[in-house]
Amino acid sequence: MAEVGRAAIDDPGALLPRGFWAAVEVWLERPQVANKRLCGARLEARRSAALPSAEACGPGTSAGPELKEQGPGPGQGFPGGGPGPRLPSGPKQGTACCESEEAQRQCQQEEAQREAASAPLRDPGHSGHAEGGEDDLPTADLDSLWDDFSRSLAHGNSKLLAFLTCSGAGSQPEAQRELDVVLRTVIPKTSPHRPITAPRREIVVQDVLNGTVTFLPLEEDDEGNLKVKMSNVYQIQLSHSKGEWFISVLIFCPERWHSDGIVYPKPTWLGEQLLAKLARWCVQNRKSGFKSTLSLVSIMKYSKAYRELKEKYKEMVKVWPEVTDPDKFVYEDVAIAAYLLILWEEERAERGLTARQSFVDLGCGNGLLVHILSSEGHPGRGIDVRKRKIWDMYGPHTRLEEDAITPNDKTLFPDVDWLIGNHSDELTPWIPVIAARSAYNCCFFVLPCCFFDFVGKYPRRQSKKTQYREYLDFIKEVGSTCGFHVEEDCLRIPSTKRVCLVGKSRTYPPSREASVDEKRTQYIHSRRGRPVSPPGRGLSPSPPQVAFGSSGHCDGHQALDTGVRCVPGAQAAERGSGPQAGGPWLPGFHPREKAERVRNCAALPRDFIDQVVLQVANLLLGGKQSNPRSSRDGSVKTWNGGESLSLAEVASALDAETLQQLKRECGGLQTLLRNSHQVFRVVNGQVHIRDWREETPRKTKPLEAKRRLLSEARKTRLCWFFTHHPDGCALPADCCPFAHGPAELRLSGTPRKIP
């Protein structure tokens, strides 16, 4: 055996050894986090077990001196409440058997470890979704596998037994090892650049008291039976020596190690890359509030479907006519389609259905998801408020409709199996409601992105949660109130918002539909008039322009004005004047206008922009911080570079009417100042006057065509500093890219776009 890596761990938060088992859990259940060539892992079975007595090991089998002074400390086990190694209940060594104070302390540690390890196990199929199939190994077979392996250890395989039980100066030298044994399948990620690698099964042996985790690969013998193979066996262990914690990686029979570069990397990778990640995870006192990826579907089926769809639709990247990034949006929709196809396939198997599910994608955007699902045999259509260029490329079998939807009794889908909300923005909280009222068997899938309530922006309530986590909980609450069993999953897509919510079954029988719908109505109306922004922040009196028709992934749609506070109709209803909110739907929802409004300050009046720029520049120049520096022609010139002010300080100097107009634009004041690149620099929230003497030329030499375009762009605009700065421009006329006076102006060589 050989130690291929060892790392000391700084543990100021006293997280070890709990943190060690948390790190092991990540590598056990989600190995793709560390090894990017893996798709995931599936836990198939779990059991408690015992090895032959440790005294079967001969002397000299320790992996090294001081490798293991003691096991985990008292009262510390794997992370409480989470899945981790479990030890079977059995005879405990009490303090009466201890002849010395040190031995007594050791026994107390072991007893505390057993108590810490007594938390219930997670269902073996939960994390990796152990689905049924001809490739699955029945759970009962783990028992015979382990029994055969134990017998081989006791009758001739003493070296491997020593590796498992005597890697360190182990505890319990006279007692049998009590272990947690897991059977898992490691699933490689497929790639066109390398041959397809079949999934690999292995047994993982966790010794909590000894702080070791051993990975035993399985192989088929000549008769087709699985057995433990002697190559590629490795162990991760936690040790405590001279007041310090260490984590090590050891290999059994390094001369037999065979690296395939995927499931089994080189030993140096284990001792460096993996060890570094485990050491870091050990002391991270953070627990994710989200599910593991692909927890509701088969990882193996998903991986296969994704590979096939990616190969089939990869040409879309080359012909993408939209302004959005094709690499991101094509492969993201391919991944979502693969997930839905497997989810629906498993639903058909569960319910004994043969017909493929129908669907409607609300806010379909570019329509690619609709195109893929339709091409794969699912009847459906997509609806969006605005047609995209790419729609005409899909062909007649892809049904895409340009329309706006307001949630009401006329916008239900009684003949549809699934409603999809892929980044559906304002309609996201309504999708569970529409699905519930369309038909009892109608299901929903939503992938929330922007945060909207039934009408208006979603108001934050829980400061202890992230806004994203709080909004997901809100959508789950909506689905549960509508009568769905809402499940959460995390997709593998190139997006920071990748948690989806699925409602595919009801919590009530069809006979209770009327009473449940009454509760839905009460809940929806309880959300009316919810404040969108705190009082006293310049609230806009205009009604909210909330809309349906998301582009999917926020590709060009703008969010609501954050000044909108609540629904005017709801305010009037609560005061007793104006229309009362009646019926099962909430008034105040307005579809987004078909023509998308530009809100990046570019459409503001030119006079208004010039006024704000001049006002902010005078404010900064009022500091009068002269900056003597050499110009590019070698002359020294004293030039007022002004002071630096924060955006808040600049905003406080502007009048209320100007600020109100800026708030209607995305980014407001900061966007306007960034757009005025010639005059200002905005860095980390600080506004500066731009000194063009500090602007350095690009290090990389541009292409000839680019150099020609830059040359043609020179002197096509007036220099703001030449006209407005008290010291003029810091650069001489021949060095400044802008015109010093009308006489230097020249026509642009590039025709301007006509709006």
TrEMBL record:
<comment type="function">
    <text>Probable adenosyl-L-methionine (AdoMet)-dependent tRNA (uracil-O(2)-)-methyltransferase.</text>
</comment>
<keyword id="KW-0489">Methyltransferase</keyword>
<comment type="similarity">
    <text>Belongs to the TRM44 family.</text>
</comment>
<feature type="region of interest" description="Disordered">
    <location>
        <begin position="571"/>
        <end position="591"/>
    </location>
</feature>
<dbReference type="GO" id="GO:0005737">
    <property type="term" value="C:cytoplasm"/>
</dbReference>
<protein>
    <recommendedName>
        <fullName>tRNA (uracil-O(2)-)-methyltransferase</fullName>
        <ecNumber>2.1.1.211</ecNumber>
    </recommendedName>
</protein>
<dbReference type="InterPro" id="IPR011671">
    <property type="entry name" value="tRNA_uracil_MeTrfase"/>
</dbReference>
<keyword id="KW-0862">Zinc</keyword>
<comment type="function">
    <text>Adenosyl-L-methionine (AdoMet)-dependent tRNA (uracil-O(2)-)-methyltransferase.</text>
</comment>
<dbReference type="Pfam" id="PF07757">
    <property type="entry name" value="AdoMet_MTase"/>
</dbReference>
<dbReference type="GO" id="GO:0030488">
    <property type="term" value="P:tRNA methylation"/>
</dbReference>
<dbReference type="GO" id="GO:0141101">
    <property type="term" value="F:tRNA(Ser) (uridine(44)-2'-O-)-methyltransferase activity"/>
</dbReference>
<feature type="region of interest" description="Disordered">
    <location>
        <begin position="49"/>
        <end position="139"/>
    </location>
</feature>
<keyword id="KW-0479">Metal-binding</keyword>
<keyword id="KW-0963">Cytoplasm</keyword>
<feature type="domain" description="C3H1-type">
    <location>
        <begin position="713"/>
        <end position="743"/>
    </location>
</feature>
<feature type="compositionally biased region" description="Gly residues">
    <location>
        <begin position="72"/>
        <end position="84"/>
    </location>
</feature>
<feature type="compositionally biased region" description="Low complexity">
    <location>
        <begin position="105"/>
        <end position="119"/>
    </location>
</feature>
<dbReference type="GO" id="GO:0008270">
    <property type="term" value="F:zinc ion binding"/>
</dbReference>
<feature type="compositionally biased region" description="Basic and acidic residues">
    <location>
        <begin position="123"/>
        <end position="132"/>
    </location>
</feature>
<keyword id="KW-0808">Transferase</keyword>
<dbReference type="InterPro" id="IPR000571">
    <property type="entry name" value="Znf_CCCH"/>
</dbReference>
<dbReference type="InterPro" id="IPR029063">
    <property type="entry name" value="SAM-dependent_MTases_sf"/>
</dbReference>
<keyword id="KW-0819">tRNA processing</keyword>
<feature type="zinc finger region" description="C3H1-type">
    <location>
        <begin position="713"/>
        <end position="743"/>
    </location>
</feature>
<keyword id="KW-0863">Zinc-finger</keyword>
<feature type="region of interest" description="Disordered">
    <location>
        <begin position="507"/>
        <end position="554"/>
    </location>
</feature>
<keyword id="KW-0949">S-adenosyl-L-methionine</keyword>
